[in-house]
Amino acid sequence: MNRSMTSFAIIALISSSIAACDKPGETEQKKEIAATDQAAQARAQADHNVQAAQAQSNRDVASARADFEKSREDYRHGRQQDLADVNRKIADLEAKQPTATGKERATLDSNLPMLRSRRDAFVVDLQRLDDATPASWDGARASLDREWDALKTALAQVS
After folding, report:
1. What is the pLDDT of residues 33-50, one digit of tens each?
2. Does residue 87 sit in helix, strand or coil?
3. List of domains in the chain
4. Whole-model pTM?
């Protein structure tokens, strides 16, 4: 009986040790599942970060566009006021032309067509500012500034 008890004890001990051990590959499978979950979480976090960065970028672009549009409109408005002033001065010279005599009449006759032509070119280029992109803005503005300076100088010489 003692022998059967010993055998039974050994069998019980072996059975419990086998039961206590994981099935072959179960530990590796648990590690693989944990790694997959961790990778999925990292991907989700990366996607969230990308979306947050894209949203911030979109806000920055919208702000820059709004600033550009305001700057363009302010510049255009200022040049429109300058153009109104030039138009008044040319109208005054045109009103003076019929009653002018001598050298003044000759100056007005020869320079008024040139002033009108420069003014008309300035108006056309001023209207083109609406189509200027942010990339072409600096060049378009510099060109219009040069035209404005030439028109203003020519008007001052005739006046």
Report:
1. 988 989 999 999 999 999
2. helix
3. 71-159 (1.20.5)
4. 0.64
